[in-house]
Amino acid sequence: MSFGQGGPQWGPGDNGNAPDWAALAEASEARARKKRLMMIGGAVVATLAVGSVVAWGIVSANKDSEAGNKPADQLPSTADIPSAGKTPGPSFAETTPPPPLDPNDFIDSAAKDKAPLNQDTLFPGKTLTVGDRVYKKGATTRTTDCASAAQKGLSGVLKKNDCTQLIRATYYKGGSAVTIGVAVFDTKAQAMKAKEQYSDGTVVSLPGAGVPTFCRTTVCRATANAWGRYAYFTNGGLTNGKDATKKDTAMFTLGDDLQQFTFEQIKRRGETQASAAATAG
After folding, report:
1. DSSP SS3 for 281
2. Euclidean distance between CA atoms 276 and 281, whole angstroms
3. How far from each other are the two terminal CA atoms of the chain, in whole angstroms?
4. Tell me, what DSSP letter sits at residue 97?
5. Across the 281 residues of the chain, what is the mean pLDDT of every consecutive 10-residue run?
6. 3-class secondary structure, 179
7. Under a CB-based contact definition with an 8 Å cutoff, are residues 261 and 128 in contact?
8. pLDDT per residue over 245-255, tens digit each?
9. How many Cα atoms sit within 13 Å of 188 on the Cβ side?
10. CA distance 183 to 177
11. For residue 271, what pLDDT is reported?
């Protein structure tokens, strides 16, 4: 039987009009294999394409750090790489610190010398210790009538140069006693003139607080000095009513120690006020 030109032919051993299942299955399997091959081939192509994109992305991401992937002979030499030591640090504008305040400026004139000033600030405590020597403090006093607490020529000198106050204190040890008088002026120039013009007389000795009257009618040692707007004078001798001589070394030492202490007290006033002004500024 024929189903027309080119149709299937049944030959000897055919089962009538039944189709050739084996041939059909083989043909179907061939088509299936071909389809699978095409699908696998397409997948491979797709995988290669994806791999290409990923690889390109990695290379692209590392493009800015190509030096890290270059061979050693293509890397910059050590001389081309800036060292840590050559890296400039932060720069700051140069500043010039203000000059330190001069303590003498504060004790050279009353305009700046404003710290409290009296017998307690100049001569604090009950004793004065210098090295292994300890002196007791006797009476102290303060007056604005400077001339009244001075003798002979010194009285006129203090008045002439406008002394504003005279602070006195007596220190003693054994049979020796010394009174020191600190004359205060408005300016350094006045204090220096008072020292230069001084030729005779001295401060009136100050007895009391365990010290008998001394240096009123006997020979005593007198000294004069000045620092800043302060001039200071000593009157020292013996408390037994006798004249002092150069052999009375204890009295001379007491007078020298007291002068040095007074100088240090005046100097300290300037330093304290300069320090306070610098801190406040």
Report:
1. coil
2. 9
3. 129
4. P
5. 39 45 57 59 48 41 46 51 57 63 93 96 97 97 98 97 98 98 98 96 96 96 97 98 96 98 97 90 66
6. strand
7. yes
8. 999 999 999 99
9. 11
10. 20
11. 95
- Residues 6 or more apart in contact with residue 198 via CB below 8 angstroms: 153, 154, 157, 224, 231, 233
Q: Which ranges of 151-247 does DSSP label H, i.e. alpha helix?
A: 152-160, 188-197
How far apart (Å, rounded) are the C-alpha atoms in residues 239 and 250? 12
What CA–CA distance (Å, rounded) separates 117 from 196?
24
pLDDT recorded at residue 2: 37
Count CB neighbours of 82 within 10 A: 8
Backbone angles phi, psi at 118, to 5 degrees: -165, -175
Question: Six-digit token pair at 267?
Answer: 């100097």
Show the DSSP H helices in the chain as ranges. 21-61, 66-69, 103-107, 119-122, 152-160, 188-197, 249-280
Q: How many CA atoms lie within 13 A of 242 on its CB side?
A: 9
The sheet that has 165-173: what strands, in order across it? 127-130, 133-143, 165-173, 176-184, 230-238, 221-227
Instruction: Quote the CA–CA distance of 205 and 87 in Å, as a whole number.
Output: 75
List alpha helices for 227-280, DSSP H. Answer: 249-280
